[in-house]
Each structure stands twice: as structure tokens, then as C-alpha cells.
């Protein structure tokens, strides 16, 4: 084919990157998105936060830059069912101590990591238990398993005493795992429920035939007495005294005939005795109350001192002192005689999980108000959510003197007045429900400082994991805790502004008075009773799509200006532990400063666009002495586009969906963000919605004070949004929107120019061009309203435009550079619209569009215009606009190369409508071309086409000679990447979704590059020290009295234990394996030495008590003579208690079920 001299004289723009060896694709960093959360753990002492996933990965997060990833191996990819930090206690002079972590996988194996090892947590041991670990709960949709495995918290313990964990097995046995020796301890607890059922059967109560009642659901250690272990079986709760090696309490709920329970009076078995199936347990912070959840959706409240009957049995809807375990004969008779007059209540969910939180809100050692968090218990027709109950303080008064002395060694009896006061402390003061997208699967509280009280004391935030729209996927949300309604919102002085004086009284302008009233109203609306959201790490965002943007230094500095400033209305998670650094062994850090800054815009399920800083400069670190100070990616909290408020007001006309009567929740809306477009210089942001609406947001808009009304626009397609103020602290403000219209259809293409223009193409073939300075529509191309005689225009008028691109360039027929829009239709027919600047500073579009032809099925954004001499992109930016507004003689003689890419091939043309330079066809073996980019490096550029088979085709410019075919790193998806002109691009993998699903959440983001030389090293995961900055573990909470603090009963421990509460070192001593110690089977009698030692310990404890009381009375010198008789009586009673203890020890030795 003949080639003109002009084409031959065009320089090779790809000269410096024309070798195949110049191109090598490599994965830089994978950013996970945790849409498959199965386990959560936190350590408030070290400030660490860990996530376990369904694919066998454990992610540990801490302070900025701290991130570590662990894998469950052999085989890989097993679901993590349980996760826990094993926090070792610190002595008073030690502030940094090791932290271990352990987890259980889908094969019921225990994995133990040493988190104190520098660089990365080290896997120490994988242990199997020979049988399944019990973790099931009786509800099919609650698939996030709970297991009976809890770490015993300890304090004031010698550092060499081993730490242990209780592992509950499927057969009801509890094993002990030594976390220091990394082996299963010989200390074990057999199935206690079977022993309890035998005694129940011997007593004549035959309810023990219920299947599965001996399955362990959970185990909880008493928050203030580590000697007491609560074991939750399906049949009830047994309390074990670890020192005495016996069961001291059994909380089994048997409803009498006629009691409604959670099923109500319409239950078929309401006239029969029923044993409720236990499903969850929580202990009151004082240690004197426990809440047990049941399968019928009720919560039973028990006093630790009274196992005979519960204090109350209630549902989430119960009011006052209602007790569903009591028989209301009148109501029962009414329901049985006239069942149609009493509607049947809908069934309730079982209680899946409970957490009882206390707060430092009272000077009384028994504490103040508490919050009980309940997962489950809602009626099946209720919207999904998580319930928090505010309960009054547990502060019973001192009971009156009984008058009759109790026998020596007898267990204390709960006084009726004390019981009544405890019931009063269970009357709900307030209720709040955290609403969620789907059924809640789990929740986790973030305590401020202490790991005691099962990690539920004084939490500042709550993380809720719920079902997503996609099966098996999870959505994570975090809120402040407790809700503001529980503790009130302080009044702000600014909310009490005086209204303006009436016109007749002070001559005030009515408009000014109206503005003042509106200001007061807006300020009052800012005070919300809803909990503030908590800032989650980006790995827990529900991301649906991403857009990679390269910005210059000026734009970057503008975007990150308030990067470290927290967003108003958000709380921070207490995740601040550890330190991270990178080792630059290959000397690649020094090249990072030459890399451009990059921003990753993500659009989420809640109709928001959030921005992440993924600039390589964040990775700069040269060793442990120069740690990382930023996370990668780093959140830009104030750069957020919230679209949900725009769809609440249906008068704006942005949604084609009918308005709903219920409150608008963007998480439940069918509206979606289809794409995001950002101008790299002006930083304007355009979001395209699924409904066809297009919204423009502008950065740092200065709003006029007193302006509240909506501005009217001349064009019917546009609606002003300047009156829609963003949330306080957000920098992006809505400016205007293009309303959707059924006649135009959905948006097929969109292009935003830094020069201040927006083009939108629709499925009907319509095209709108908008001047953002107005805004005003300067072009309406509607094929249904106009006819064209041109052959090409006949096709273009009926075809939708699939690709829109802006450029400032000249044509063969019009050499002077002008601002032009390239609109390519499905068949490849392209219309080139030219914008003209008029003397009145207004812009218009020349009606006669230039018609040219490119390869069919054009790629979105696949049109590029380059200067033929230098290869510089001719963008419609500020510089390009300056060349248009201030032309010079040199611009008329410039030559341009137009590169047009389609799914079938690519074509290069001189000056857009001039001579064809080169043409290349892709062929069928490479797959479908999805994205094209002009990649620049070392003053050269080349065309890169990304295909659906994971290849990148590299061609020289302008002659389109094939340079290389690059195999890209696997990403698990065939979706097109988001690219920039440096050769870096982002691919992502989506969570598996059913065919036709409208939601495809991202599972991971893969940051990759086409130039691997001196790039990959800094992107590797950093080395970490997870113990850095870790403080001391607070001392173990001590037992407190049920009565007022002055009562002597507080010195006797819980449930009448004469030995008092046990510290961590005493509990560890029970399980330490001493050399030569022999194990005894369950039921064997302890030796006489142990009985004597127990009795001696009890006697010493009582004598100790006597000495302390006597010393206190002697020091105070208060009425010694009057109290002497009481002290003698106490001493005599103590001797009787010692004798009684010897007899009890001998009896219990015959029933012992511990083995050593």
C-alpha cells in the first residue's frame, strides 16, 4: 500500500520502550476487602484488631502502617471459626509483654501464633483434638459459628505460669490447652451435664431425655472470681468451682404448666412442663447476675445466689416487671376459652449472643447503669437489627436482720427484699435497635482499655457483621456505643439562639427573620439521637467499584490538606497498636519520590464515594528507626461524596423509583452508582447512577450565608443542588444534577473535561453537552426529533454512543486547535463536535458535526489525540483551553495523531480526518479488548490494550507495530481494569454472586504495573512489631458485695465460697503439670493431704478475716466492748465452718470429675 511522505516522516513515538524486555507486569500490592468475615478479635491493651475470613486468612491491624496477614495452612483456605488474642498479664514494673493469638479452623484445629516475634507473627503449633470442637447454634441462618473456647484472664501472675485456654469438644468434655508449652494439658473437665442429669433423674424429675442437651454452646469465666467457670449447655448453665473441683450451681429453666414463655399462651404444649433450650449467656459486671438466652427468644435473668427460679423471663418487648415464667391463670383461661380474641404472636428468633457491658459511671463499686446487647430475640416479621437494652444499676439495699442465726456452713439465702431490688434493676429504661441491611450474624464490642469482663466493659464502639445482598457475603458496619439516647446529648449554647424580632416590633426584615428561623431549625436537626458511625478501615468497606486517578502535586496537596483531621460525627476505633517498617535491601526507596501521586476513588453500597491515597510515597521507610507513619491505602476522611441525601427528597426528581413511606435507608435502596469520573485538575466529581441520573460535586464550594432556597435553572434537564449542604466536615458539595428520563434511557457513556464541560450519552441515542459554568445545556442531540440526510448520520442518529472523549486539537479541514468532543457509536461511526467561544464569554457547539469512521464497538475512553512530534496528549485541560483561547501561529501548523480503539482493532489517523497512518486488528485468540491506554515512559509512549483473557497487547505509535504481549498477574476476574498513563493499573476480584445479581461486591483490589523494574520492593507488606507501645494489663477486678459496700458479706466471695475469689496464679497452679504428678480418673477420691490442705486454707482464710476485722476495730476504737460478743460469735462460727469444710471436702472427693 502506498504511504505518503508525510506519514513516513512521522517520528517513532515509542522508540525508548520498543523492546519486549522493557515490559514486565508485576503485582505490587493486594488490598483485601473483608466481605467474608467469620471471626473478630481485639486486644485493648495492645490496640490490635484481627479479622478471620472464610478463606483461611487472618488479618491483623494496628496503628498506621501496621498490617500483617496470616494463613491457615494444611490445607489452605479453611474457614477461620474462632479468633482470640491471648493477653498475658504484666507485673507492675513491666509495660511491654508478649501477645499470642490463636484460632480454630474449619477442621477443628487450633493454630497458635507468637505475636511478639519481630517482622511477622510466627506460627508456633497446629493442634488437633481428635474430635469435633462444638460450635453450633440452633439457627440455620446464623452461620458465624460460636465455640466454647475462652481465654482465662489473669492478673498478678508470675510470668512463668502457663497461660491456658478452655476448648469445649462435641462430646461435652472441656480440654485445657497450655499456650506456653503448646500442648494439650492433662487437666480436663468431663461432661458435667450428664452427671447433673443423673442426679436430676434420681430426684424424680424426668426431663433429661431432650436430645442434645449436653452440647456445649459457650464457656464464660466469672468476671471477678476466676475460680468460677460458667459452662453453657443446651440444657442450661452449670457453674464449676475449679478449686473445689465440683459443680456449685445449676441454672435450668423448666417452665411450669401454663407459663407462656416466648411462644405465648397459644403454644401447643403450654399446659405441660417444658425445659427451654439455652443458646447464649452473659454475666453482669458485678458478677451477681447472669442473663441466659433461650431458643424461644426469651432472656432469663438469674441471681447467682439463687438457682431455684429466675428473677424474670422476658422478651425484647416485655414491659415493667413482666415474668413469662410465671403463670397468669386469668389470661391463660381467657386464651384457652376464646383463642380467636387473642391474636397469635409471630415466632421469635432464638437469642444468639449476649453481651453485658458496664461503665465507670458510678461511685458505687457495684456500678451504675448497664447495657445488655442482644443478638436475636426479634419477631420474624421485624426488620433486621441488633438490640441494646439500658438497665438500671444493681444496688440493692442492706437486707434487714433475719433474727435467726443460720447454721454454720450453710449457703446464704437471697433475702426477698434483695430479690425484689434485683428485679427492679432489670426493668428496661431504654431500648435502641441498630438497623442493618440483612440479618445480623455477629457483633463485637471495642473496649477502651481493659480486656477483663469478656472484653465488654466500657466499650466505645460496636462492629456489626450482617448478611449482604449476595449469598454468603457479609457487610460490616461500626457505630458508637452505647447509643446517645442512653446517656443524653449535652445542650449546645448555639442551639438556643433567640429568633429575630417581629417586623412590627423592631423593623427587622421578614427575610432575615425567616433566615434566622431556618438557621435555628437546621442547628436543632444537627443534634441527632442516632449513634455516630465509626471509621472502619477501608478493608471493611462494602466496595462495588473503583477508579484510579493520577494527580499532579498541586492537586494532591489540595486533596490531602485535611487528611489527619477526623470527620465530624464519626468516632474512631481504638486500633492503635504496634509499629511497622520496611527494609530497603535493594535500594528501591530512593526512586519512590519520582513516582506520581495516585488517588483511588471507591464507590460503596451506601451510595457514597470515598477516596483513598495510594501514592507510593506513603511506603517510604528505611528501617525500624524510620517506621511507617501512614497506612497503605490511606483514607482521606473529608473527601467523601454522599449521594443518599439527594434521593431522600423526591421533589428533586433524581430517582425513577416510587417514593416509599418508610424512612429512606441507602443500604436498602435499589439505586446504585454505576461509574465515577473525576477531573484530575479541577477535581470535580461526576457520579452516574443506575437510574440515569448524573450528579456533579465540586470541591470546597463556598456557600453563601443565609441562602436556603433552591436555585432555578433554565434547562429542564438540570436541577440545582447548591441548597443541599453537605454534612459538616465534608469538602465535596453537590452543585447540580441531570435528571433521569425514561425517554432518554440509561447512560451509556460519560466524559468530564477539566476545561469545564460534561458530555452524557444515553441508550436512546441522545447526547447532552453541558457547560459547567452555568450550568447550562449547550447541545441536545436527540435522534427522535431531528432528521439527517447524511448516510453516516442516519446510522449515528439511531445508535447509542458508547465512547465519549474530549481533546483540544486541530483537523485537516480546520488546522487551528479547538475544543472538540469525539462521540463514537456502536458501529464505529464517530461524530466530532466542535465548541466555539463567543465574544460574550459563552460557549456553543457548532451544529455541523464532522463524521468519521473507526473500528466497530468502540472502547469507552478509547479515543486519544497526540501531538505527532512529541507524543504529548492533547487533553481538554487548562493548558489545552489556553491554546484554544489564545491561539498563535505555531498552533496552525501542528500535526496530530488520532488513535481510535475498538473491540475489533485500532486505527491511527493524521489530524483526525486526514490520511490513515496505520491499522491493526486484534484477532480472535487474544480475547476481547476491554480497555486501552496510552502509556508514557522516558519521553516515549505506546498503546496498551487490555483483554478479557488477562493479556496486555503493546503497540508502537503511531505505526502500530506489535511490541509485546504481556501476561498479566492473575486477578480472578475478567472485568476491565482502571488504568493511568504511567503503566500502573488496578484490577479487582469480585465476590462470587449468582447470575443476574445486581450487586457484585469487591473481594480484593490488585494494584499492578507494566514496568516491574525497581518497583515491587517497597510495596511488599511491612515488617511489624505488634508489641510496640503496649501497656500493662489492668489488675483483675475484685469481688464486690451484693449489698452496700460496708456489708461484711462482701468478704466471703460469691455463692458462699469460704475460700474467697481466686486470682489468676491460683487458677494456673491448678492446671500446671508438675513432674511426677499422677492423673486420677473422674470420681477418684482426693488424698488426705489435699483435704487437710483445703481445710487449712479455709481456716487460714477465716483467721485472716478475723484478724483484719479485729485490727480495724482496734484502730478506730469504736465500741469494742459492745462488739466483742459479736466477734466471739463469729470466731465460734468460723470453727464450725472449718469442720463443715472438712466434711464437704471428703464428700466432694468421692464425686470429683477432674483428672490430673
Task: Provide structural commentary.
This protein is of the alpha+beta class. Helix content is 14%, strand content 33%. The protein contains 15 helices and 63 strands. The strands form 17 sheets. It has a five-stranded antiparallel β-sheet, with no helix packed on it. Strands 47, 48, 49, 50 and 51 form a five-stranded antiparallel β-sheet that branches. A four-stranded antiparallel β-sheet has the order 1-62-61-60, with no helix packed on it. Strand 56 (929-937) and strand 57 form a beta hairpin. Helix 14 runs antiparallel to helix 15. The longest helix has 30 residues, at 1120-1149. 45% of the residues are buried. Residues 89-98, 135-162, 489-508, 788-796, 1048-1052, 1071-1106, 1112-1127 and 1144-1156 have low confidence and may be disordered.
Shape: elongated
Helix content: 10-25%
Output the structural class: alpha+beta
Uncertain runs with pLDDT below 50, 5 residues or more?
89-98, 135-162, 489-508, 788-796, 1048-1052, 1071-1106, 1112-1127, 1144-1156
Provide the spatial order of strands within the biggest beta sheet: 38-39-40-42-41
Q: Report how far the terminal alpha carbons are from each other.
A: 94 Å
Number of strands: 63
Give the strand content. Answer: 25-35%
Biggest pleated-sheet summary: 5 strands, antiparallel
Instruction: Count up the helices.
Output: 15
In round numbers, the mean pLDDT is 81
Report Rg: 36 Å
Amino acid at each position: 500500500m502506498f504511504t505518503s511522505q508525510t506519514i513516513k516522516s512521522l517520528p517513532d513515538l515509542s522508540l525508548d520502550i520498543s523492546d519486549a524486555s522493557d515490559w514486565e507486569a508485576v503485582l505490587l500490592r493486594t488490598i483485601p476487602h473483608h466481605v467474608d468475615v467469620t471471626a473478630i478479635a481485639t486486644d485493648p491493651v495492645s490496640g490490635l484488631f484481627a479479622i478471620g475470613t472464610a478463606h483461611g486468612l487472618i488479618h491483623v491491624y494496628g496503628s498506621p502502617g501496621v498490617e500483617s496477614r496470616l494463613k491457615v495452612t494444611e490445607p489452605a483456605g479453611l474457614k477461620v471459626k474462632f479468633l482470640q488474642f491471648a493477653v498475658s498479664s504484666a507485673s507492675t514494673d513491666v509495660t511491654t509483654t508478649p501477645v499470642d493469638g490463636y484460632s480454630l479452623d474449619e477442621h477443628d484445629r487450633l493454630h497458635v501464633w507468637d505475636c511478639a516475634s519481630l517482622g511477622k507473627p510466627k506460627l508456633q503449633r497446629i493442634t488437633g483434638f481428635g474430635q469435633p470442637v462444638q460450635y453450633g447454634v440452633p439457627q440455620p441462618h446464623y452461620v458465624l459459628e460460636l465455640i466454647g473456647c475462652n481465654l482465662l484472664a489473669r492478673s498478678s501472675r508470675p510470668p512463668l505460669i502457663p497461660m491456658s485456654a478452655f476448648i469445649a469438644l462435641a462430646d461435652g468434655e472441656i480440654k485445657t490447652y497450655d499456650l506456653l508449652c503448646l500442648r494439650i494439658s492433662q487437666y480436663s473437665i468431663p461432661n458435667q451435664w450428664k452427671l447433673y442429669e443423673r442426679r436430676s433423674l434420681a430426684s424424680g424429675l424426668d426431663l433429661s431425655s431432650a436430645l442434645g442437651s449436653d452440647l456445649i454452646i459457650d464457656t464464660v469465666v466469672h468476671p471477678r472470681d476466676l475460680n468460677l467457670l460458667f459452662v453453657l449447655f443446651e440444657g442450661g448453665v452449670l457453674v464449676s468451682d475449679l478449686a473445689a473441683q465440683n459443680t456449685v450451681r445449676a441454672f435450668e429453666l423448666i417452665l411450669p404448666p401454663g407459663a407462656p414463655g416466648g411462644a405465648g399462651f397459644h403454644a401447643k404444649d403450654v399446659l405441660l412442663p417444658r425445659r427451654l433450650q439455652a443458646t447464649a449467656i452473659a454475666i453482669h459486671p458485678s458478677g451477681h447476675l447472669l442473663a441466659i438466652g433461650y431458643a424461644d427468644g426469651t432472656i432469663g435473668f438469674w441471681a447467682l445466689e439463687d438457682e431455684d427460679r429466675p428473677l424474670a423471663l422476658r422478651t425484647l418487648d416485655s414491659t415493667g416487671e413482666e415474668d413469662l415464667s410465671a403463670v397468669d391463670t386469668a389470661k391463660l383461661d381467657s386464651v384457652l376459652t376464646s383463642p380467636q380474641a387473642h391474636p397469635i404472636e409471630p415466632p421469635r428468633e432464638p437469642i444468639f449472643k449476649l453481651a453485658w457491658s458496664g461503665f465507670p459511671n458510678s461511685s458505687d463499686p457495684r456500678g451504675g447503669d448497664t447495657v445488655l446487647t442482644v443478638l436475636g430475640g426479634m419477631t420474624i416479621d421485624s426488620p433486621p437489627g441488633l438490640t441494646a437494652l439500658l438497665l438500671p444499676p444493681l444496688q440493692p439495699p442492706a437486707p434487714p436482720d433475719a433474727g435467726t442465726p443460720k447454721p454454720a456452713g450453710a449457703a446464704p439465702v437471697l433475702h426477698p427484699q434483695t430479690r425484689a431490688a434485683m428485679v427492679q434493676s432489670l426493668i428496661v429504661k431504654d431500648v435502641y435497635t441498630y438497623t442493618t441491611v440483612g440479618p445480623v450474624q455477629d457483633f463485637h464490642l471495642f473496649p477502651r482499655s481493659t480486656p477483663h469482663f469478656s472484653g465488654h466493659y466500657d466499650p466505645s464502639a460496636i462492629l456489626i457483621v450482617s448478611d449482604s445482598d449476595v449469598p454468603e457475603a457479609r457487610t460490616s458496619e461500626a457505630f458508637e456505643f452505647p447509643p446517645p439516647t442512653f446517656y443524653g446529648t449535652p445542650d449546645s449554647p448555639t442551639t438556643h439562639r433567640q429568633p429575630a424580632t417581629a417586623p412590627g416590633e423592631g423593623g427587622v426584615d421578614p427575610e432575615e427573620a425567616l433566615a434566622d428561623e431556618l438557621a435555628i431549625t437546621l442547628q436543632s436537626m444537627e443534634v441527632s439521637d442516632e449513634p455516630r458511625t465509626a471509621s472502619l478501615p477501608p478493608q471493611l468497606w462494602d466496595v462495588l467499584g473503583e477508579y484510579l486517578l493520577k494527580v499532579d502535586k498541586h492537586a494532591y496537596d489540595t486533596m490531602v490538606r485535611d487528611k489527619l483531621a477526623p470527620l465530624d460525627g464519626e468516632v474512631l476505633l481504638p486500633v492503635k497498636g504496634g509499629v511497622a517498617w520496611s527494609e530497603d535491601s535493594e535500594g528501591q526507596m530512593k526512586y519512590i519520590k519520582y513516582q506520581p501521586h495516585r488517588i483511588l476513588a471507591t464507590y460503596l453500597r451506601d451510595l457514597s464515594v470515598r477516596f483513598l491515597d495510594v501514592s507510593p510515597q506513603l511506603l517510604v521507610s528505611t528501617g525500624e528507626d524510620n517506621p511507617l507513619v501512614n497506612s497503605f491505602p490511606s483514607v482521606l476522611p473529608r473527601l467523601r461524596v454522599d449521594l443518599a441525601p439527594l434521593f431522600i427528597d423526591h421533589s428533586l426528581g433524581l430517582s425513577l423509583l416510587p417514593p416509599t413511606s418508610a424512612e429512606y435507608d441507602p443500604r436498602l435502596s435499589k439505586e446504585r452508582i454505576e461509574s465515577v469520573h473525576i477531573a484530575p485538575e479541577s477535581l470535580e466529581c461526576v457520579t452516574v447512577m443506575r437510574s440515569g441520573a448524573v450528579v456533579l460535586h465540586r470541591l470546597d464550594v463556598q456557600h453563601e450565608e443565609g441562602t436556603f432556597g433552591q436555585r432555578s435553572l433554565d434547562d429542564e434537564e438540570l436541577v440545582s443542588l447548591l441548597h443541599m449542604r453537605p454534612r459538616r466536615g465534608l469538602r465535596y458539595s453537590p452543585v447540580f444534577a441531570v435528571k433521569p428520563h425514561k425517554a432518554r434511557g440509561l447512560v451509556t457513556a460519560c466524559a468530564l473535561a477539566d476545561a469545564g464541560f460534561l458530555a452524557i450519552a444515553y441508550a436512546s441515542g441522545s447526547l447532552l453537552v453541558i457547560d459547567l459554568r452555568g450550568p447550562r445545556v449547550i447541545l441536545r442531540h436527540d435522534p427522535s426529533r431531528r432528521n439527517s440526510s447524511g448516510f453516516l448520520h442516519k446510522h449515528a442518529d439511531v445508535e447509542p454512543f458508547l465512547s465519549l472523549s474530549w481533546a483540544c486539537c486541530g483537523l485537516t479541514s480546520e488546522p487551528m486547535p479547538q475544543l472538540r468532543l469525539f462521540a463514537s457509536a456502536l458501529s464505529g461511526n464517530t461524530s466530532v463536535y466542535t465548541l466555539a467561544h463567543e465574544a460574550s464569554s459563552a460557549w456553543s457547539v457548532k451544529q455541523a458535526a464532522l463524521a468519521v469512521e473507526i473500528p466497530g464497538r468502540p472502547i469507552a475512553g478509547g479515543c486519544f489525540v497526540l501531538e505527532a512530534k512529541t507524543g504529548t496528549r492533547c487533553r481538554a485541560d487548562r493548558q489545552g483551553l489556553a491554546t484554544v483561547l489564545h491561539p498563535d501561529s505555531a498552533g496552525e501548523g501542528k500535526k496530530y495523531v488520532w488513535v481510535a480503539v475498538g473491540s475489533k482493532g485500532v486505527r491511527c489517523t493524521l489530524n483526525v480526518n486526514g490520511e490513515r497512518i496505520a491499522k491493526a486488528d486484534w484477532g480472535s485468540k487474544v480475547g476481547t479488548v476491554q480497555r486501552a491506554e496510552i502509556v508514557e515512559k522516558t519521553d516515549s509512549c505506546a498503546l496498551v490494550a487490555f483483554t478479557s483473557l488477562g493479556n496486555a497487547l503493546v503497540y508502537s505509535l503511531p505505526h502500530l507495530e506489535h511490541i509485546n504481549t504481556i501476561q498479566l498477574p492473575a486477578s480472578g476476574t475478567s472485568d476491565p481494569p482502571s488504568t493511568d498513563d504511567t503503566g500502573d493499573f488496578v484490577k479487582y476480584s469480585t465476590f462470587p454472586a449468582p447470575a443476574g445479581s445486581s450487586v457484585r461486591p469487591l473481594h480484593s483490589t490488585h494494584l499492578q504495573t507494566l514496568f516491574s523494574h525497581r518497583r515491587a520492593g517497597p510495596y511488599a507488606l511491612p515488617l511489624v512489631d505488634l508489641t510496640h507501645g503496649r501497656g500493662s494489663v489492668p489488675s483483675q477486678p475484685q469481688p464486690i458485695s451484693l449489698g452496700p459496700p460496708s456489708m461484711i458479706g462482701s468478704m466471703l466471695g460469691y455463692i458462699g465460697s469460704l475460700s474467697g475469689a481466686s486470682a489468676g496464679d491460683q487458677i494456673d497452679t491448678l492446671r500446671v503439670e508438675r513432674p511426677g504428678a499422677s492423673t486420677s480418673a473422674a470420681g477418684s477420691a482426693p488424698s488426705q493431704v489435699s483435704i487437710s490442705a483445703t481445710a487449712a486454707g479455709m481456716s487460714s482464710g477465716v483467721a485472716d478475716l478475723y484478724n483484719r476485722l479485729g485490727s480495724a476495730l482496734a484502730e478506730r476504737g469504736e465500741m469494742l466492748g459492745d462488739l466483742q460478743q459479736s466477734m466471739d460469735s463469729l470466731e465460734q462460727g468460723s470453727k464450725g465452718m472449718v469442720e463443715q469444710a472438712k466434711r464437704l471436702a471428703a464428700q466432694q472427693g468421692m464425686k470429683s470429675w477432674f483428672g490430673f
